[in-house]
Amino acid sequence: MPDMKVLFCGDVVGRSGRDAITRYVPKLRSELALDFVVVNGDNAAAGFGITPQICKDFYAAGVDVITGGDHIWDQKEIVPFLATEKRLLRPQNFPEKTPGIGYNIYTVASGKKLLVVHLLGQVFHKEHTNCPFFIVNNIIESMHLGQTVAGILIDFHAEATSEKTAMGQFLDGRVSMVVGSHTHVPTGDARILPKGTAYQTDAGMCGDYNSVIGFKREAPLERFQTKISKARLEPAEGDGTLCGLLVEIDESSGLAKSCKSIQYPKLLGGL
Asked: What is the pLDDT of residue 234?
């Protein structure tokens, strides 16, 4: 059987980010012969959370799984949706009684199985979640990479680069890929770690990069200069760029065969 190609798309911010997903994911699925697409939708609904309708639009565009983050609860209609929708993940290290799930095994068209795990960082986050290292270790210890599942993808939604890097080192050789989300800036460190796990500290965002991390510049500039946070953050409305991490997973080992940072339709330096 052929190797499996997986694309992870970073945080979707507002309409520009949503348009980038619905416009470019179908093209990339075809051009890159993708087997599976995961999208972080934490800022898809006007910059804050996601709605059931946006999820459905993403599914229709060819997205297989959507992850959230610290803004997953911002839209009230998403709570009952999370309770039944297995293709939308909230961070697994929230309390057990929290609606929804944080990991699941999905079957791709070829019949291979892929485990997707979504975690929230603790450093600089106010949610007071359980330890993500302990949680993920419990999940994957019963999984045999390349046997029980063909691949394991970890979306670590975290603020601190040190915490993300530590997670990559912790899971190296045990999962197919560890990709960071949340900070909206693609990092230049996409690589395969020594034991075979694809890693990138942050995949970046899907949205308008002529902005302040996807938002119109006026409110952030006012906040930084005055320390007053009255102005409401609004997503920027220019053309969106899709940023993510493309990983080819070896069919026999479940480890990464190759990985590449994706910026589509053009490199950010060309904006």
From this structure: 92
C-alpha span between 149 and 140 (Å, rounded): 10
Spell out the alpha helix ranges (H) of 159-257: 161-171, 218-226
Q: Which residue has the tokens 């939308």?
A: 88
Is 0.90 topped by the overall pTM?
yes
| The pLDDT of residue 271 | 52
Q: How far apart are CA 27 and CA 84, in angstroms?
A: 29
CB atoms within 10 A of CB 196: 18
Please choose, from the candidates 114, 111, 95, the residue with its C-alpha nearest in 3D space to the C-alpha of residue 103. 114
**Radius of gyration (Cα) for the chain, nearest Å?**
17
State CA 91 to chain mean position distance.
11
The Cα 47–Cα 50 span in angstroms is 9
What is the tens place of the pLDDT at every residue in 141-197?
Answer: 988 898 899 999 999 999 999 999 999 999 999 999 999 999 999 999 999 999 999
**Residues annotated catalytic, as ranges:** 71
Q: Please name the residues in contact with 98: beta carbons below 8 A apart, sequence gap of 6 or more.
A: 90
Please list, in sequence order, all residues whose beta carbon lies within 8 angstroms of the beta carbon of residue 17, skipping any fewer than 6 positions away.
11, 43, 44, 205, 206, 207, 208, 214, 235, 240
- Environment class of 266 (CB within 10 Å of its CB; exposed 0-12, middle 13-18, buried 19+): exposed
Q: Is the dihedral of CA 32, 39, 93, 116 positive or negative?
A: negative
